[in-house]
Amino acid sequence: MEALFRWREKVDRTGHRANTNEVTDFIEVFVNPKNINLATIAELYRKGGLSAAKIATQVGLSKSAVLSKLHSLGIRRENLKDIEYDNHRPAIRAPFGQKIVTGKLVPNRHELKIARLIVELRARQSLSWKEIVHHLESENLKTRNGFHWKIRTAKRVFDRWNGKL
Q: For the chain, what is the domain count?
């Protein structure tokens, strides 16, 4: 991996530029991102725990190019057993209503209560999606990440848990 140096021009108070021969800052840049070693990308993904987007910004490729390189190596969404943990944080997320504990999916009681409420309001009380989202907000219930509910998020939870709760 060759790093290139970026030169910065100094500007004096009159607005004229003066070139300097000292390095003021540098950024690691890959000379030809398309020739990046596939093993390097796989190592960053598996052992480094980086997402495809973070790898893309680090090596200078697009996210889709990184994903296609990972797919060419046979690396897709890994099974929970194959995940390497870094600071007890898994590489993939558990579905809403479940959480990952030591590599296994276990129920998340708080999220399951919200999922039951969504299924109850939609399937049994026949409320519209807008009414369901309004009800969740009036109960001061937030999503897993602490955001306000959206119709599409409530639909996804309903589709996952309808008939299972």
A: 2
Whether residues 138 and 108 share a domain: the answer is yes
Whether residue 66 is found in the same domain as residue 104: no
The predicted pLDDT at position 37 comes to 76
For residue 89, what is the DSSP state?
A: B
Write the pLDDT tens digit of every residue in 88-143.
Answer: 555 577 889 998 888 788 999 999 999 999 999 999 999 999 999 999 999 999 99
Amino acid at 114: I
- 22 in a domain, yes or no? yes
* C-alpha to C-alpha distance for 23 and 7, rounded to whole angstroms: 6
Residue 2 has which token pair? 């060759």
Residue 24 structural domain: 4-82
DSSP-derived secondary structure letter, 77: S
Quick check: 98 and 106 in contact, CB under 8 A? yes
pTM of this structure = 0.48
Nearest alpha-carbon partner for 160 in 65, 96, 72: 96
